[in-house]
Specification:
Elements (H helix, E strand, L loop, with lengths): L5 H8 L7 H24 L3 H23 L4 H25 L4 H23 L10 H28 L3 H21 L4 H24 L11 H22 L8
Length: 257
């Protein structure tokens, strides 16, 4: 048996998943659910923004508390938290735009600044922004704050591109796919892996939002017409199948206090 190296030890204790193709697939699907799920609850289900915000905020608090209590990476609690953060991040941006009348230009700028500050504070405290070293509760808290801000920023930037700038859903999907591919190419040619990861992570949110709108919106508005409930249900089913597959294939990691 080979002895465990320092790198292996960190990965075993890490509270978030390794970055693989499945990771990115689930991430994009979860961001799409955030877009269509929030719209379905607030509009189609008739709950309205305030009730929807209260319900999703409560569910997020419960999921996050469970995730933090685990002290390790557990696929279903981790991805449940991500999906709920996606919904709440969408609601946060929609509240600023629809209720307070904040322009998408302003909300994109505000969330960009907030995210930059969050990264700066995280780095000043921990001297790293790598998700391969989320081995303490404090680092995990920084991580979840940043994830929420990436969802809010991604929603604002996606709406800015597809609506305010008039790109539309189809072109929006192509543009954000192209940007992510360019970042991947830069990573393959030696660009900083932490920087390229976070840039790609931010861009998957507007990609997911554009994809969700493309699938769910009616043909009258440039979509395919699946509807919010069908799109959300289909993507949630795929997420659940992938998470179950991951859970069955991985060896449980020890709980770290």
């Amino acid at each position: 048996m080979h002895p465990m190296t320092a790198t292996d030890s960190v990965l075993v204790r890490n509270r978030v998943p390794e970055v693989t193709l499945v990771f990115w697939i689930i991430k994009v699907l979860s961001t799409t659910v955030g877009e269509t799920g929030a719209d379905y609850l607030a509009v189609n289900a008739g709950l309205g923004p305030l009730v929807t915000d209260a319900i999703m905020g409560t569910l997020l608090a419960l999921a996050l508390a469970l995730q933090l209590r685990n002290g390790r990476y557990v696929p279903w609690t981790y991805w449940l938290t991500v999906v709920l953060l996606s919904v709440v991040g969408t609601q946060l941006t929609d509240f600023l735009t629809d209720k307070l009348g904040v322009s998408l230009y302003a909300s994109t700028a505000v969330f960009s600044a907030a995210l930059a500050v969050a990264f700066a504070v995280w780095y000043s405290c921990e001297r790293t922004l790598s998700i391969q070293s989320i081995v303490t509760r404090r680092r995990e808290l920084f991580y979840w704050v940043v994830i929420l801000l990436t969802f809010a920023l991604g929603t604002a930037a996606g709406d800015l591109a597809t609506e305010a700038l008039g790109l539309g859903f189809r072109i929006g999907v192509m543009v954000f796919c192209g940007l992510i591919f360019a970042i991947f190419a830069a990573y393959r040619f030696g660009a900083n892996p932490v920087l390229t990861f976070w840039l790609a992570y931010i861009l998957t949110r507007p990609l997911g939002a554009s994809l969700g709108d493309l699938l769910s919106q009616s043909t009258e508005y440039g979509g395919i017409g699946w509807g919010n409930i069908n799109t959300s249900a289909a993507f949630l089913a795929v997420i659940a199948a992938l998470v179950i597959s991951i859970s069955r294939s991985r060896t449980p990691a020890p709980i770290i206090p």
